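Fill in residues.
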């Protein structure tokens, strides 16, 4: 189990198959009841910030593992068998917040992160567009346009040739400094996704450059069904000269790592 700030992810083996489930973290008591109801006489291992809280609600012995250990272990498992497996890479986990790790042949360590992540996506969407539900956000955002909200390099260099790609965002939300035009909620949602995507990519690309790595593996529930965020991150990573890998089921890395760690 990976008991995160927003979602609890659970990985388990049933009839020889890996099963994956997720629940909102606010329903911790219901989740504990679901676990107790579904599993008897099983080994449990939990990771993540809400590990202690969840453990207290379960009436059986639970092992604990450090989150970053579990995540890296799970990612290596998910990457197994993938062609061109990037053994050495930057690992960026866009969860409620974003944390960044360096993974090499011999070691893995956390180098930092940013508070801009999936929680920012939910919070700013609620604030600016009055859309608070994740599924509504990802449904409505593609109908929006960032054009009148974000300021592009080409708009600053109007009439002349910019020294860097004119398509780059010069200032997220920077266009609103001028007279705002008629904007719809989806426009704000699209720009919030742009802000989150470009921020996590920039931090990841800088980490990659600093450590001489070229591949960035992105995981975290913020990518679930969120084609717009996936595209912003993939395109921007490529534009900045690195190779993006958006790992399928990456949001379950912590839970899978915890499962693999059961002694
Ligand atoms: P954590 O481990 O911190 O809970 P996750 O990797 O699970 O982080 O990512 C949480 C983010 O995933 C949320 O902030 C939100 O942007 C996004 N998300 C995806 N699906 C949901 C959902 N069903 N409910 C709420 N947030 C969701």
């Amino acid at each position: 189990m990976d008991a995160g700030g927003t979602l609890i992810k659970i990985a388990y083996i049933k009839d020889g198959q890996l099963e994956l489930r997720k629940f909102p973290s606010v329903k911790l008591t219901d989740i504990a009841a679901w676990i107790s109801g579904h599993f008897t006489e099983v080994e449990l291992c939990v990771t993540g910030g809400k590990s202690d809280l969840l453990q207290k609600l379960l009436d059986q012995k639970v092992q604990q593992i450090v989150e970053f250990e579990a995540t890296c272990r799970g990612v290596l498992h998910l990457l197994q068998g993938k062609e061109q497996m990037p053994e050495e890479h930057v690992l960026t986990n866009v969860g409620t917040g974003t944390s960044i790790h360096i993974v090499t042949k011999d070691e893995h360590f956390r180098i930092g992160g940013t508070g801009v992540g999936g929680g920012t996506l939910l919070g700013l969407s609620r604030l600016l567009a009055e859309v608070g539900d994740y599924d509504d956000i990802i449904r409505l955002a593609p109908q929006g346009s960032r054009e009148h909200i974000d300021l592009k390099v080409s708009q600053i260099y109007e009439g002349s040739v910019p020294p860097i790609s004119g398509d780059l965002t010069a200032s997220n939300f920077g266009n609103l400094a001028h007279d705002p035009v008629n904007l719809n909620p989806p426009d704000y949602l699209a720009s919030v996704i742009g802000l989150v995507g470009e921020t996590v990519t920039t931090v990841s690309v800088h980490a990659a450059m600093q450590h001489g790595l070229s591949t960035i593996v992105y995981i975290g529930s913020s990518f679930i069904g969120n084609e717009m965020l996936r595209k912003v991150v993939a395109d921007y990573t490529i534009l900045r000269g690195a190779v993006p890998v958006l790992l399928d089921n990456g949001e379950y890395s912590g839970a899978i790592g915890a499962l693999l760690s059961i002694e």
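The chain has a mean pLDDT of 95.
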